[in-house]
Amino acid sequence: MTIEAARTAGEPGSTLIVRNGTIVTLNERSDVYHGGHVVIRGDRIMSAGEGSAPEVGAARTIDASGLIVMPGLVDLHFHTAIERGGYSESLEVEEALFQHWYPMMRNLDAETAYAGALHSYVRAIRAGTTSVNDMFRHVESLARAASEVGIRATLSSLVARPEDGLDVLEDNRAAFHACAGEPDDRVQVAVGVEWIPLATADILRDAASMATELDTGLHIHLSESQQEVETCLQEFGARPVRVAYDHGLLGPSTVAAHCVWLTDEDIGMIAETGTHVSHNPAANSKLGEGIAPARKLLEAGVNVGLGHDSTEGNNTMDIFEVMRTGAYLQRAVHADPKLMPAAQMLRMATVNGARALGVEAGVIEPGHKADIILVETESDFFDTRMPAYRANVLPRLVFATNGGMVRTVIVDGRIVMEDRVMKTVDEMEAIERARDAVSRLVEGRRSRGTP
User: Fold this and answer.
1) pTM of the model
2) What element of type H or E holds 435?
3) pLDDT in tens, 270-329
4) What does the pLDDT read at residue 55?
């Protein structure tokens, strides 16, 4: 299939049929169809079920024999990768931010952001992620990269105080209008707030007002570290969640990332407002930030998705690994192996994330967006075609699968990766472009005397 053919797949009237796979729907009934099919017309799922697909003329067919067909993964808290980890190893999050991350971000230009995003989105697709909630700089460059790669993306700026040298709210507004009106709705712009310690009361209120005015979402780091809590108490006289609540930042269009250090009152405010939470267990663990109370949030009725955060904090964009880490940590903390069952983790990584971003995806069901991945699970002792193993399909996906086992990725009805070959961009060119851009960025920092 040529790059041009891949780009035209998913157009109105075009039909794609996936046959002979193990279809993991993640619908409310948790239906799994063995030897099943999915029919995609345009950007939507037309039908899914057991056995052969209905006859459809002029359809392209993918044979998914021996593969699991499931909804694409949603990375609910994502930062485009500019450095691959190593600069800030073994540092607390505040040290990593102020010594390395923020200086890098201040020196970032539009082309470097584009190169980093292009490569990052390719890496995400390779690991089965079909949608990202990316907070970074130069949002127009990110949108360009997302459009070329074919990933679904919600993008927001690193909004802080002017003296912090990152983005301000008007940068975010300009990006929103620059990206508005595109015929393809895969790329959306939300309002970003880096975090409360780099904001003023006016910035927080204005960010909430802007999200309402533009009728878009809001993305914020919240209660990530103990130091953040202490800073908010000193600067605002309240804990981060209370500050966000009082300034109108919480609500059904907000994704709050991390939410590690929460009181019962904090959880109550998050639940009351319908705020969505991105749980980032792998990054929080590596950075020594603590373990978020995911169990309590879920029990309170909060919609919780999963994010990798950043390669600086996590060194991988593999949401399969994030699922596994999330389940392990909650089971260990509460000494209960029944917690965070596979079906729940899979929904957090798919339908919950899609819901948080307002996308009709994350489930294989007629009428939903066709964001689908095909995953290998065969081994010497596990084959989905063997009845003895069929009951273990969901645990297999969470506890014995990684992003390297993803074979084919479909976003919005378009095949963007097939048999591990990117169909939309030249992957080697993207790698070289990112490597050169990062080298220039690092050398530029060194020439200015920045470590």
Assistant:
1) 0.93
2) helix 427-447
3) 999 999 999 999 999 988 999 999 999 999 999 999 999 988 778 889 999 999 999 999
4) 76
Alpha-carbon distances of 136 from 18, 140, 158, 173, 239, rounded to whole Å: 35, 11, 6, 14, 25
Distance CA 277, CA 45 (A): 27
Inter-CA distances, 332 with 144, 326, 327, Å:
42, 10, 9
Find how far residue 105's CA is from the centre of its chain. 20
Q: Are 188 and 155 in contact (CB under 8 A)?
A: yes
Q: Which residue has the tokens 């998050």?
A: 270
Per-residue pLDDT at 9: 46
Residues 6+ apart with CB under 8 A from 179: 139, 140, 143, 155, 187, 188, 189
103: which DSSP letter? Answer: H
Q: What is the pLDDT of residues 174-213, one digit of tens each?
A: 999 999 877 678 999 999 999 999 999 999 999 999 999 9
* Tokens of residue 252, six digits: 């059904």
Q: How far is CA 397 from the centre of its chain?
A: 18
> Among residues 144, 141, 129, which one has the least CA distance to residue 77?
129
Specify the pairing of strand 32-41 against strand 44-49: antiparallel
Hey, is 353 helix, strand or coil? Answer: helix
Instruction: Kindly list the distances between the CA atom of residue 177 and the CA atoms of 117, 146, 173, 311, 451, in Å, as whole numbers in the listed order.
Output: 20, 17, 6, 29, 36
Q: What is the DSSP string of 29-78?
A: T--EEEEEEEEEETTEEEEEESSSPPP-TT-EEEE-TTEEEEEPEEEEEE
Scan for tokens 């309002």, then name that residue: 191
Percentage above 70 pLDDT, the chain: 90
